[in-house]
Write a structure and sequence with these properties.
The chain is globular and about 55 Å long. β1, α1 and β2 form a beta-alpha-beta unit. The longest helix has 26 residues. About 40% of the residues lie in helices and about 15% in strands. With about 230 residues, the chain is α/β, with parallel strands linked by helices. It starts with a strand and ends with a strand. It contains six helices and seven strands, in the order βαβββαβαβαααβ. Strands 3-2-1-4-5-6-7 form a seven-stranded parallel beta sheet, sandwiched between helices. This is Benzil reductase ((S)-benzoin forming).
Amino acid sequence: MNHLAVITGTHRGLGHALAKHMLSTGRYMVWGISRYNEIEHPNFHFHQTDLSSSDAVDSLPDIPTHFHSYTLIHNAGILQPIAPAHRIQPTELQRIYQINILSAHLLSAWFIRQTLPVTASKHILHISSGAGRYPVTHWSAYCATKAALDMLSQCLALEYPQYRVYALAPGMVDTDMQSFIRSHTPDTFPEVQRFKSAKELNQLLDPLMVSNKIIHLIENSTTSLPVKISIKDL
């Protein structure tokens, strides 16, 4: 294996599909960061970590320095609370900010400290969302954290030009998060019908297809792409 990929949220959804796809190529050693694991592969190393904890990064080991490329993919994220801003509890806000943006900042800093001295191709990919670029009713917490993730990515790209940094909005991917969104009623989430219609019209994206595009982006990164991108750009 010539490449090391550190991926958060590998237990399910896009992170799980991405880890499995990378492993299937035979080119990647994958470190999975998640609370749970179902992947069994000789080139997969699971690091049980709860990203809702502020000291989650402290338990991670040092990164080996013999790989030809290094990639951090921060995919882990939560959507809830879905509610008007005045009904969100402080503990709910603290949790979503910790998982969606604070852990991304801490992990990025850890990854950079570990790989900065290494002469190799280096990438940081944050899984963002269109919700960080366009407001969504009752998603104030999610929208705010994803917008912050976009800005974090842009700042890192300025500070560390030797890294290719991206904030990717992957579109509507057919994962458990989409099922969770569709489980709401218009009373709790006024825009729910848009997501139900996307499912009914077969407009959701296959996680395997999205993961394939991400791998292609990493292996063929170019300075012609901006930091903030969407799946349509790939």
